[in-house]
Amino acid sequence: xxxxxxxxxxxxxxxxxxxxxxxxxxxxxxxxxxxxxxxxxxxxxxxxxxxxxxxxxxxxxxxxxxxxxxxxxxxxxxxxxxxxxxxxxxxxxxxxxxxxxxxxxxxxxxxxxxxxxxxxxxxxxxxxxxxxxxxxxxxxxxxxxxxxxxxxxxxxxxxxxxxxxxxxxxxxxxxxxxxxxxxxxxxxxxxxxxxxxxxxxxxxxxxxxxxxxxxxxxxxxxxxxxxxxxxxxxxxxxxxxxxxxxxxxxxxxxxxxxxxxxxxxxxxxxx
Length: 271
Ligand code: MF3
Ligand code: CO
Description:
Elements: H1 6-27, H2 36-49, E1 53-54, E2 66-70, E3 73-75, E4 89-98, E5 101-111, H3 116-134, H4 142-155, E6 160-161, E7 167-169, E8 176-180, E9 197-200, E10 203-205, E11 211-213, E12 220-222, E13 228-230, E14 233-236, E15 243-244, H5 248-257, E16 261-262
Antiparallel strand pairs: 1-4, 2-4, 3-12, 4-5, 5-16, 6-10, 7-8, 7-9, 9-14, 10-13, 11-12, 14-15
Helix pairs in contact: 1-2, 1-5, 3-4
The structure holds 2-amino-4-trifluoromethylsulfanyl-butyric acid and cobalt (II) ion (CO).
2-amino-4-trifluoromethylsulfanyl-butyric acid is lined by residues 56, 59-60, 62, 67, 76, 93, 95, 104, 106, 168, 199, 232.
């Protein structure tokens, strides 16, 4: 396991924030009629304009700057020429390398109104991310994060927690130890120590947890064709309280200011 110094964590915060800024920039442009390929182009330009590199491009042969996963696509969706329509939900997952350090996080948006049930899936998934982050403190174990996410999504709300894909350590590499599953037993797995940076990323299905991969070798979809939601934050393990390096507040501000996007503010907080 690689633990980061305070100086390294500050550099990683800059990388994570560049991803947040990229997602914020894109949030302002989302509307029905645009293609996910046009979004991906803007993402590449924005990252390069900020002296960074889109880290997903060519990673294990991945052919785009970003992953854009629409509706039943869980993760690793290819940007394409199909136009977004009202009622679509899309997860935009972005990775950068800035000054040698990776940032990697994701946010799910709703174009127009996808309906109450889908908005609830979005809200519960985001809440589960924060419940996992609460457990990312010194002395806990990976299983405490995993359990908190599974508890909120699967046991309390009946959603499917994807088993095939997991969160991960983050640093000079996109994927470092440890793996961070979104399901598991409290008190199990590696111990969390000061300076461990994790990408925590619940991938939650409205229906069954089962997924399959398209012939393109990347696109992961739900077996039942129902929607899936994915939120991801970059987090540093600390004593007492985790330090969230990425920033949803600027994305949420842009989301609320864009009349084409449906947000969760009208819903009651769920326990
Ligand atoms: N957030 C994803 C991950 O952590 C993105 C990787 S996609 C790839 O694995 F294109 F880079 F492979
Ligand atoms: Co990730």
